[in-house]
Design a protein that fits this description.
Elements lengths: L2 H24 L2 H17 L8 H22 L22 H19 L4 H14 L1
Length: 135
């Protein structure tokens, strides 16, 4: 297996986590996907041979990309026409088991995103760091 194939395999292993971090910071599934894609570009252009914790490295990259996106929103002075509510994650009500529990946790996460929207980007990142440490 060459270096590129190894990077692809490792990135795919962390993709779900990276999307969750980006979604929590940005409150938008499409923007979260953009942030994850940008983190892939960073990974593919970087020499990661000295990186001991690739998951932590990727999480840091995604968080920085999200912060840049949030700052860009502020510098463009984007103002929503009405109150911004994060995009809901559509789930089936008849789900049972761990998948259902995960979907329920995501729905609770929406309420937390409303609270996070009141924080500035640096405060958001610090709250996410606390959440990761508590997990």
């Amino acid at each position: 297996m060459d270096e590129h194939e190894w990077q692809v395999e490792q990135f795919e292993a962390y993709r779900t986590h990276l999307q969750a971090v980006a979604y929590r910071m940005l409150g938008s599934l499409s923007e979260a996907d953009d942030a994850v894609q940008e983190s892939w570009l960073h990974l593919s252009r970087s020499d990661t041979s000295g990186v001991e914790n690739l998951g932590g490295w990727l999480t840091t990259v995604v968080a920085r990309v999200c912060l840049d996106m949030l700052r860009s929103r502020n510098s463009r002075r984007e103002e929503p026409l009405d109150m911004h509510v994060p995009e809901p994650i559509v789930s089936r009500e008849d789900g049972i088991g761990p998948e259902h529990e995960a979907l329920l946790a995501d729905s609770v996460g929406l309420a937390l995103l409303v609270v996070l929207n009141t924080l500035n980007p640096a405060e958001r990142l610090s709250q996410l760091d606390l959440a990761v440490l508590n997990d």
